[in-house]
Automatic annotation (TrEMBL):
It catalyses: ATP + protein L-histidine = ADP + protein N-phospho-L-histidine. InterPro entries: HATPase_C_sf, HATPase_dom, His_kinase_dom, HisK_dim/P_dom, PAS, PAS-like_dom_sf, PAS_fold, Sig_transdc_His_kin-like_C. Residues 325-380 form the PAS domain. PROSITE patterns: HIS_KIN (PS50109), PAS (PS50112). This is histidine kinase. PANTHER family: HISTIDINE KINASE, SENSOR HISTIDINE KINASE. The keyword Iron does not apply. The lineage of its organism: Bacteria, Bacillati, Actinomycetota, Actinomycetes, Micromonosporales. Keywords: ATP-binding, Kinase, Membrane, Nucleotide-binding, Phosphoprotein, Transferase, Transmembrane, Transmembrane helix, Two-component regulatory system. The keyword Transmembrane helix applies. Its EC number is 2.7.13.3. GO terms for molecular function: kinase activity.
């Protein structure tokens, strides 16, 4: 209650410059002047003496001044003031009664309700009757003054109501206008909600509380409140059906509802609010879409709230919608995976989002005010910023000079801001990882194509090699038969007289040499054919496509096949030794394992060649651990320096000269082992001595429900 009184006093104190207050001040001044005139003309020595007359004047003046200051008059003051008016009129010999009565009645008509004016009319009638009966006032004069005073009472009461309505409308217009300026300064939905409820609370002294609720899904949820309500009212939810038919019908564009009595009580109960005499509701709507409502709880129905309340609701709805759009835009910008940079046309950065900070590895404070052009690779600058790009362009960017370039796809748009300046929106997406994967895929596809080609060639070679092998074996067997026949002839010739012709032929043909060397040549042919067949089988195994799904495979056989395929690369620089333990069938993509072992062997051969210490050794071992099959490839090469150890598996990192290596071999090995098989790869190295790479492949396929029985038995 105290808060309400303070608001009322503040409301009326701040409203003394209103038209109604000016009229009241004018009539009060006239009333005081006529009273003083009455004192001057009064016969102070008459009935009651001067003290009675002065007391009567005080009885009129004091209630008028006090009521004027408070902005209201208790109804009983009509009687007190009426008696004072009678005394003043009597003391002055009725000389100024008409003027005093007229000014006093017109002043009092500016206050109070219709009931107050009826009491005032009765008081005037009593004064006129007392004047006619006790002070011998002519009835015609009394009637004339009664009619004039009554007309003044009626006219000024109507005038006061009209002026009061206009003043209230002006106050609400100023409140709404002030709210518009405050809405423009808000930066969040909570700020806009607070402005709306506080403004609504000042629209009328009878408003004791205001609410703002969001309407969605058939329910209304309070998001802001002010006035005589509990702080915890925010967050309360009520069904729209609980609010009443009138309120539900008002939740349309340009709607409004003013309910009182049981309907107002029902609304208050729905939100667990204190009882209220009346409830005014205006919808919050944007683009004919109602998303909420603003509510006034008042002590009495006030129909003229509609215009100002709906205007405030429209302004609040537009601001809340704009703040929601800004909030959503902020969320999108802050959570966008793309780097967003706003810069002036000269390249001075004005805004960056978190993705840009991450891409450039610099905080926003360090980027704002810096030059965008200096962050781009000079070779890409002209093509990237020349014209607006509807399609993404490849662009390299970095946050500092000591950083490596990051490959991105960038789009640039130029636009004119509200002040006429030109700005740039630079949108970049980090594609370095994607490009790495694309290159790996291309490399893998190339290897797969070569493997398939090798498998096809091996398949084609296999048939003639078998044909040649079969024929050489036939020749071997046939020559053995010829040798037996020749031996028999030789024995026969020794027992008979030598034939010079045959002896000459044997000597010319160097028969002894042919008999010794021909079997050797045939055996060497067969060994060569066997080796070719071995290579063909290895090529077919290595070229086997490593597609889905994983299948149990013999790792040792895969290693043997890969060694054969890599023989040409390593035969001049190193010897290959193996120590292959007995392994179970391991679920894997055998093509990937072939590629992994091949890359490690070739990498070892290159390391041995770079060491320039003569012929080296590549030692390949396998062993079994409880949950993994392990492949180790050791070399006697240069070793890995400590300063580059952590970069060895990075894409594009290579220790070879420019043009000699792509830096993809070990990066691809890591992808094949870790990403595609869920395995592990590491290495130990001693510079100048050599390096050992260790590949650990799980014995159980993570995608399979159970481990193979033979794998479990072997692991145990």
């Amino acid at each position: 209650m105290g808060g309400h009184l303070n608001r009322v006093v503040s409301h009326w104190a701040s409203g003394h410059d209103s038209m109604l207050e000016q009229v009241r001040t004018l009539f009060l001044t006239l009333c005081l002047i006529w009273t003083l005139v009455g004192l001057v003309w009064a016969d102070l020595d008459g009935v009651g003496g001067p003290y009675v007359t002065v007391g009567a004047v005080a009885a009129v003046v004091v209630p008028l001044v006090v009521g004027y200051r408070r902005g209201r008059f208790p109804r009983w003051t009509w009687l007190v003031e009426g008696v004072g008016v009678c005394v003043v009129a009597t003391g002055s010999g009725h000389a100024v009664t008409f003027g005093l009565l007229f000014v006093w009645v017109n002043f009092r008509a500016l206050y109070g309700s219709l009931t107050d004016q009826l009491i005032g009319g009765g008081t005037i009638f009593g004064i006129m009757a007392a004047g006619a009966v006790f002070w011998h006032l002519p009835v015609s004069d009394a009637f004339s003054m009664l009619v004039a005073a009554s007309l003044g009472l009626i006219v000024n009461h109507v005038l006061a109501r009209g002026i009061h309505g206009r003043d209230r409308a002006a106050v609400r217009e100023r409140a709404v206008a002030r709210a518009g300026a405050e809405f423009a300064a808000t930066t969040s939905r909570s700020d806009a909600t607070a402005v709306a409820v506080k403004t609504a609370l000042t629209m009328d002294p009878d408003v004791n509380a205001t609410l703002i609720a969001i309407v969605a899904g058939g329910n209304a949820r309070i998001i802001g409140a002010a006035g005589e309500v509990e702080p915890e009212v925010a967050g309360r939810i009520a069904s729209i059906d609980q609010l009443g038919n009138d309120v539900r019908a008002a939740l349309v564009p340009n709607g409004f509802a003013l309910v009182s009595g049981p309907a107002a009580a029902r609304f208050a109960r729905a939100f667990q609010l204190p009882p209220t005499a009346a409830v005014a509701v205006a919808p919050l709507a944007v683009h004919d879409d109602v998303f909420g409502m603003i509510v006034l709880l008042t002590r009495r129905p006030t129909d003229d709230l509609r215009a100002s309340l709906t205007t405030l609701a429209d302004a609040a709805a537009l601001t809340l919608d704009q703040q929601l759009s800004r909030s959503r835009l902020k969320i999108v910008v802050e959570h966008s995976p793309d780097a967003l940079i706003l810069a002036s046309e000269r390249g001075i950065i004005r805004f960056v989002n978190p993705a840009a900070e991450k891409l450039l590895d610099r905080p926003a404070a360090g980027l704002l005010g810096s030059d965008l052009y200096l962050l781009l690779n000079p070779q890409d600058l002209a093509a990237t910023l020349a014209t607006p790009s509807a399609e993404a362009r490849t662009c390299r960017i970095r946050g500092r000079e000591d950083q490596a370039w990051t490959e991105t796809e960038a789009m640039v748009e130029y636009f004119t801001e509200h002040d006429g300046s030109r700005s740039i929106i630079f949108n970049a997406r980090d594609v370095s990882e994607r490009r790495r994967l694309e290159r790996e895929l291309q490399h893998a596809q190339k290897v797969q194509s070569v493997g398939r080609l090798a498998a096809g060639i091996a398949h084609e070679i296999n048939t003639p090699i078998q044909f040649i092998g079969d024929n050489v074996r036939f020749i071997e067997e046939a020559f053995a038969g010829f040798v037996k026949i020749l031996d028999a002839y030789e024995q026969k010739l020794r027992t008979t007289e030598p034939d010079d012709t045959i002896t000459t032929v044997i000597e010319e043909a160097d028969f002894e040499y042919l008999r010794e060397e021909t079997p050797i040549a045939i055996r060497q042919c067969l060994e060569g054919i066997t080796q070719v067949a071995h290579i063909v089988r290895a090529m077919r195994a290595f070229g086997h496509p490593g597609g889905e799904p994983k299948k149990p495979a013999d790792l040792n056989e895969a290693i043997r096949s890969t060694i054969v395929v890599a023989a040409n690369e390593i035969k001049l620089v190193a010897d290959v030794t193996t120590d292959l333990a007995e392994l179970p069938m391991v679920p894997c993509r055998i093509g990937d394992i072939n590629q992994t072992v091949l890359n490690l062997i070739i990498n070892a051969a290159h390391a041995i060649k770079s060491a320039d210490r003569g012929r080296g050794t590549i030692h390949i071992t396998t062993r079994l651990e409880p949950d993994h099959a392990v492949i180790e490839v050791a070399d006697t090469g240069t070793g890995v320096p400590a300063e580059i150890a952590d970069k060895l598996f990075d894409p594009f990192f290579t220790t070879k000269e420019v043009g000699s290596g792509t830096g993809q071999g070990l990066a691809l090995v890591r992808t094949l082992v870790v990403d595609r098989h869920g395995g592990e790869i590491g290495f130990t190295s001693e510079p100048g001595v050599g390096t050992t790479f260790c590949v650990r492949l799980p014995l159980q396929d993570a995608a399979a429900p159970h481990r193979d029985e033979d794998t479990m038995e072997a692991a145990a």
